[in-house]
């Protein structure tokens, strides 16, 4: 915690808001401890794994990491990680944090528990199928500029979106986005947000970090 607190002091002047990416990484564990086995994506098989829940800023500054074995999934671990992260934050910075997390956080009970003035959540709606778009409803348009491996090589995605209160939990806004890639292929995705203070444009662009679904279509 002390080392991470010193790291926070180094990067805190570059942080303009309270939006953070929580990015879990799973690696094969090759040490001598008897850790639980789980799915290792890098190996495409079951192995002893070590999980690192990393927190970084919108601009890529690393803020925090906590390591786990496979005893808990992300829907449980997130509360442990957030609690530990807050220990390195100054008093005036502890509330109103927004977390951008991938679909591993999805679960109605967890999503409900994360709603409140201390935490807001932005995530993809898991297992969303086409059908949320309403042709009779007003829509809006923005452009996403997503870099490839070379940061100077930019793909431009056109996004049309609509929004509504999410029927499964009205504390969340559901943003239906139709994304068209440079080749002209279009997919439809759903983003959930509990932050009432961020504009819809910003919510969509804040979700850029988890765009593997967009880049693969």
Describe the structure.
Strands 1, 2, 3, 4, 5, 6, 7, 8, 9 and 10 form a ten-stranded mixed beta sheet that branches. The N and C termini lie far apart (40 Å). The chain has helices at residues 2-11, 74-86, 108-113, 200-206, 212-215; strands at 19-28, 37-40, 45-57, 62-68, 97-100, 119-124, 140-147, 154-165, 173-180, 186-193. It is built from five helices and ten strands. By secondary structure, the protein is α+β, with helices and mostly antiparallel strands. Mean pLDDT is 88; it is low at 210-217.
SSE pattern, N- to C-terminal: HEEEEHEHEEEEEHH
Strands, count? 10
The class by helix and strand makeup works out as alpha+beta
Low-confidence stretches: 210-217
Helix count? Answer: 5
Strand residue content = 35-45%
**Shape label:** globular
Query: What is the multimeric organization of the chains shown?
Result: single chain
Residue-averaged pLDDT = 88
Task: Provide a brief overview of the structure.
By secondary structure, this protein is α+β, with helices and mostly antiparallel strands. Helix content is 18%, strand content 37%.
Question: What layout of secondary structure does this protein have?
Answer:
Layout: H1 2-11, E1 19-28, E2 37-40, E3 45-57, E4 62-68, H2 74-86, E5 97-100, H3 108-113, E6 119-124, E7 140-147, E8 154-165, E9 173-180, E10 186-193, H4 200-206, H5 212-215
Parallel strand pairs: 1-5, 5-6
Antiparallel strand pairs: 1-3, 2-3, 3-4, 6-10, 7-8, 8-9, 9-10
């Amino acid at each position: 915690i002390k080392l991470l607190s010193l790291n926070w002091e180094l990067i805190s002047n570059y942080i303009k808001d309270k939006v953070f990416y929580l990015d879990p990484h799973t690696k094969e564990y090759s040490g001598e401890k008897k850790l639980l086995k789980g799915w290792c994506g890098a190996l495409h098989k079951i192995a002893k794994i070590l999980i690192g829940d990393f927190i970084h800023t919108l601009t890529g500054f690393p803020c925090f990491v906590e390591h786990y074995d496979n005893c808990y999934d992300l829907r449980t671990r997130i509360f442990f990680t957030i609690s530990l992260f807050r220990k390195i934050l100054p008093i005036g910075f502890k509330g109103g944090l927004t977390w951008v997390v991938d679909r591993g956080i999805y679960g109605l009970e967890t999503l409900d528990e994360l709603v409140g003035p201390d935490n807001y959540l932005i995530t993809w709606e898991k297992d969303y199928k086409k059908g949320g778009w309403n042709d009779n409803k007003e829509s809006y348009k923005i452009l996403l500029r997503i870099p490839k491996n070379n940061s100077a090589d930019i793909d431009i995605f056109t996004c049309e979106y609509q929004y509504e209160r999410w029927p499964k939990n009205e504390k969340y806004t559901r943003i239906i986005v139709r994304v068209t890639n440079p080749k002209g292929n279009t997919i439809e995705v759903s983003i959930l947000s509990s932050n009432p203070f961020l504009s819809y444009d910003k919510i969509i662009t804040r979700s850029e970090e988890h765009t593997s679904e967009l880049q693969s279509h």
